[in-house]
Specification:
The structure holds two protein chains of two kinds. Chain A is of the alpha+beta class. Chain A has helices spanning about 35-40, 45-55, 55-75, 75-80, 185-220, 225-235, 240-250, 260-270, 275-290, 290-300, 305-340, 350-355, 360-365, 375-395; strands spanning about 100-105, 105-120, 125-145, 150-155, 155-160, 160-165. Helices cover about 55% and strands about 10% of the residues of chain A. In chain A, helix 6 (about 225-235) packs antiparallel against helix 9 (about 275-290). Chain A is extended, with a radius of gyration of 31 Å. Chain B has a two-stranded antiparallel ribbon with strand order 1-2. The chains are: A alpha+beta, B mainly alpha. Chains A and B meet through helix 6, helix 7, helix 11, helix 13 and helix 14 of A and helix 1, helix 6, helix 7, helix 13 and helix 14 of B.
Chain lengths: ~400, ~325
Amino acid sequence: MTETKDPRDPEALDEIPHFVSKEPFNPDAEVVLTAEQEKYYMAGQWQLMWWKLRRHKIAVAAGVFLLLMYLVAMFAEVVAPYELQHRDVRHTFAPPQGIHLFHDGKLVGPFVYGFNSKRDPETLQKIYTPDMNKVNRIRFLCSGGYRGSEFEFWGLFRGDFHLFCPENNRKPVFLLGTDRLGRDMFSRVIYGSRISLTIGLIGIVLSFSLGIVIGGVAGFYGGLVDNIVQRVIEVLKSFPRLPLWMALSAALPAKWSPVNIYFGITLILAMLDWPSLARAVRSKLLSLREEDFAVAANLMGASTKRIIGKHLVPSFSSHLIASASLAIPEMILGETALSFLGLGLRPPVTSWGVLLNEAQNIQVVVLYPWLMAPMIPVILVILAFNFLGDGLRDAADPYK
Amino acid sequence: MLRYIALRLLVMIPTLLAVSAIVFLIIQLPPGDYLETLIAEMQSRGEAVDQNQIAALRQAYGLDDSAVQQYFSWLFGLLQGDFGWSFEHNRPVSELIGQRILLTFVVTFSTILFIWVVSFAIGTYVATRQYSVSDHAATLIGYLGLATPNFLLALVLMYFANQWFDTSIGGIMDDEYRNQPWSWGKMLSVLEHLWIPVIVIGTSGTAGMIRRLRANLLDELQKQYVVTGRAKGLHPRKLLWKYPLRVALNPFIADIGSILPEVISGSAVVAVVLNLDITGRMLLDALRAQDMFLAGSFLMFLATLVVIGTLLSDLALAALDPRIRLSGGNTR
């Protein structure tokens, strides 16, 4: 036989020398992570969530939109050209004016056409027709100097600076028309965002605290406590929300100040919202407390408070944030519906629902359809919150 | 199964009791009562107030009793079909709400049917054509439907009906049938008007249901047995109808518990906008005027409707899904 060894030959196997590496054993040497992989595996849950959310284009767009809306709400005085209660008595129920750029074929920058108004001799209704000779230019980043332009920023200091403003009171700019008192709808919608957008946030903080505490207690202790909480939740959930909201807000004393009413309404909204959150917290806790890390913490003698606060809550807080962002729009809707029915906030407090209250009568809406304008931000904001919430919910499961 | 039904019925009793206690608490919340409001109103108009008559009324309705006593007399009245007296309308509550309750029931029931039929059709269609144009369109419309509050949708529809067709779409029946006894004409008139409120109230529920059905069906369609069936050459339609669809249909019944309160909530506000003779407007007025027995009866009725609806859906689910009835008791 020649000496060519075939490794597949079983007899030849004996002759392969026994090999022992002299290097010390290093379990990590097997798989070398690239820098990118390492970053991924070492990233915390929030980092992972953010990476995943960033890929969800619509959710990001919705988030940016909401951020903008909240900025607008913060600086409402600057964004709105007119002060909230400013009345232009010569322009009651004026229709919205479209923005134009060219006049007579020449570029004059953004402007609106003024009105000619006359009264209908029979119905006494004011009829406005756009006057193609009146060019009301829009100024940008301007200090006002016209009636209704001065404001008190957050009630702290006076100001007269606007994002955009009309030239003067003779040449008004009403982008969304005016209401029955000649108040600029656009400005009112901007101011209304302040109430409408914050009521959801404050409400969610309330219902969040209630939901986490109650759901946490039920989920962690189980047994009788859990049973009682479950029954209470079931009873609260079997109420149709809006009628109950209506009944509760009708019970708010009429003598209360607007601020009290505002907090009363948030409290009412939160009172019916916490059960679903509590339920989510409870079921999450129930499954998490059986996990190894919770058992280990328990065996090491960690207190209940520490286990819940330090180990359990952080591991499902991302889920909670997702469900909160889906609950905020419900609260905004609730406030809008209540105020629309005249049971919620009342003027002079201005929210989108309060503004829509004026559009309750169909006869009015047919004559002045622009009174329905506050509907647009309502729908957009709710849509945005839903998109963002969906994105967050997907992102809350980073390894999926 | 019998054991499950019995348990479920037993659980309902304390639930309803708790509901009635909460309702009573809420209608008692506003300071003062209807008679005090009435007296203040009459005095402000300069009318003489007959103290004796007021005292007699207070006596008759037990307004001076303790809250607990009032609660129990109200509760026993409810059990005997005596809903109390409406101060504002000066008539027994049962007379006022009888027809409204029936109409509320009709509207709710048809809305649920509408949600089922439409979301079944669209959901199935869309799930079998994932990422097609119709899928994206349905998703977009679904999001819009979820985001548009139904009372605003009602307002917009009314506006466009007025602008384009010059008709009013409000009301649940023609005016001539209002306050008339039931007849064929009245029923037909109700059916004619029913579809607008049904669509308005049902839109958001339908949108949610389509989303859920689509997600469930997509999950189911990726499972092994479907692949096996397809590999064996089963006809696509049969493959869809026979198993995946059946499994995916569970939420149709299970979700009634969450959709029903939504539908009833929606109908209360939409009724105000569309001027329907269901609970909406009268409940609103009763709440404003502190007409406590009327408001209380409405709230109680709406909550009971939800409780019974949830019970029915639980029972149906138990009949369909043996895992539930065999584990007994707790459904969730």
